[in-house]
């Protein structure tokens, strides 16, 4: 879906460039005409190309619009414990996008929601973990089908994240995610690190045992 959309956008840009070039030809020919040269034959040859490309441009515009009309806003929320472990689950519905890839919690944003509210709601619905504070990692434009059935959640060491076949958003921004976690999450059993007030709030987030216990209750 995303590949075809991007192809339409690229073709639209190419066609638009062609139209602009043909129009510049016409302007040049009209300027030549002011010097008494006969250019009518050339003008008549160029004008049909402009019309053909305008028709192609309109068709591509409709194709692009049909995709953009179906675009939905969504959030994903990366759960990290105080050991820098990320919680993943495998998408197990073969009829949905990203089948067999590993995802974090998330889903579509409702019209009356903020992105923060969406992330908190979706995380609660999918993992039964309540999120009180969020930290933005990045903004991504792409295509994603609504969350589907998935396997049980499990924790992954941050250094092992690249070993899993992640969904596209996670894969594309993996280095940013890892850097963000390394910069903001300190392991609570390291006595040589004195966390700041913001870092203390991160350390007070649910432990792995609490998260897994909440998830198991939801599954039951």
TrEMBL record:
<dbReference type="InterPro" id="IPR015797">
    <property type="entry name" value="NUDIX_hydrolase-like_dom_sf"/>
</dbReference>
<protein>
    <recommendedName>
        <fullName>Nudix hydrolase domain-containing protein</fullName>
    </recommendedName>
</protein>
<dbReference type="InterPro" id="IPR020084">
    <property type="entry name" value="NUDIX_hydrolase_CS"/>
</dbReference>
<dbReference type="InterPro" id="IPR000086">
    <property type="entry name" value="NUDIX_hydrolase_dom"/>
</dbReference>
<dbReference type="GO" id="GO:0016787">
    <property type="term" value="F:hydrolase activity"/>
</dbReference>
<dbReference type="Pfam" id="PF00293">
    <property type="entry name" value="NUDIX"/>
</dbReference>
<feature type="domain" description="Nudix hydrolase">
    <location>
        <begin position="69"/>
        <end position="201"/>
    </location>
</feature>
<keyword id="KW-0378">Hydrolase</keyword>
């Amino acid at each position: 879906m995303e590949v075809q959309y991007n192809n339409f956008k690229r073709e639209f840009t190419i066609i638009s460039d062609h139209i602009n070039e043909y129009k510049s030809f016409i302007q040049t020919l009209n300027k030549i005409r002011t010097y008494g040269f006969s250019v009518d034959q050339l003008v008549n040859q160029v004008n049909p190309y402009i019309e053909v490309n305008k028709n192609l441009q309109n068709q591509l515009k409709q194709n692009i619009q049909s995709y953009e009309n179906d675009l939905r806003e969504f959030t994903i929320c990366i759960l990290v414990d105080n050991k820098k472990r990320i919680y993943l689950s495998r998408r197990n519905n073969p009829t949905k996008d990203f089948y067999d890839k590993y995802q974090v919690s998330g889903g579509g944003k409702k019209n009356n929601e903020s992105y923060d509210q969406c992330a908190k709601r979706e995380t609660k619905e999918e993992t039964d973990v309540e999120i009180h504070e969020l930290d933005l990692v990045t903004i991504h434009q792409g295509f994603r089908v609504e969350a589907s059935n998935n396997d049980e959640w499990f924790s992954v060491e941050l250094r092992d994240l690249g070993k899993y076949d992640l969904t596209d958003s996670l894969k594309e921004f993996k280095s940013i995610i890892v850097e963000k976690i390394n910069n903001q999450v300190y392991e609570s059993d390291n006595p040589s690190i004195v966390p700041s007030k913001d870092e203390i709030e991160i350390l007070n987030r649910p432990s792995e045992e609490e998260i897994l216990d909440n998830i198991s209750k939801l599954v039951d």
